Amino acid sequence: MLPLVVNAQYVRDLSFENPNAPASLMNAQQPKVDLQVDVQARNVAENVHEVALNIRAEASHEGRTAFIVELSYAGIFSMPPMPLDQTRAVLLIEAPRLLFPFARSIVSDAVRDGGFPPLMLQPLDFVDLYRRQVLASEKPEDMAQA
Predict the structure, then answer these.
(1) Does residue 130 form part of some domain?
(2) What's the CATH code of the domain at 21?
(3) N or C: which end of the chain has fewer CB within 10 A?
(4) CA separation for the pair 19, 17 (Å, rounded)
(5) β-sheet with 48-61: strand ranges across
(6) Which domain range does residue 80 map to?
(7) Is 127 left (phi over 0), alpha (psi -120 to 50) or beta?
(8) Is residue 141 part of a domain?
(9) 138 found inside a domain
């Protein structure tokens, strides 16, 4: 078991838009939802890192936006020194895995409070997201500050 300590969790930024209300609220059909997820990590002190889980969901119906919700949910994590590749994996897989249930609840509540049925995000595969991020960057120095 990794000695990863969660020191704090917080909403960094939260936005909900309902640009076509009230018409968007009168549609009984399920909108199409485009979901984007990104994880960022940065060093804030020796062996202390901030990890931000960024979620953006845009729902549309017949080409019109029903709602847009954006959340940046972050945590401060402490962990012992370890090799860079292990640090990256812990910060970009394990840390967001711990943050996700809280972020999921915030997104669901924001959508519900905006007048729509709650948006229930399915569990995310952070290992796959990490692999895609690493393949996209192909530059180990990008996370040297992690």
Answers:
(1) no
(2) 3.10.420.10
(3) N
(4) 6
(5) 5-17, 64-78, 48-61, 32-45
(6) 5-122
(7) alpha
(8) no
(9) no
Report, in angstroms and rounded to the nearest whole number, the Rg of the chain calculated over CA atoms.
17
Answer yes or no: are the C-beta atoms of 52 and 31 closer than 8 Å: no
At 61, is the secondary structure helix, strand, or coil?
strand
The model's pTM is: 0.85
Asked if 103 and 34 touch (Cβ cutoff 8 Å), the reply is no
Which of 105, 27, 16, 1 minimizes the C-alpha distance to 57? 16
Q: How far apart are CA 51 and CA 145, in angstroms?
A: 12
Q: Quote the number of domains for the chain.
A: 1
Q: pLDDT by residue (tens digit) across 61-120?
A: 888 999 999 999 999 999 999 898 889 999 999 999 999 999 999 999 999 999 999 999
Question: 45: helix, coil or strand?
Answer: strand
Using CB atoms within 10 A of its CB, is residue 19 exposed (0-12), middle (13-18) or buried (19+)?
Answer: exposed
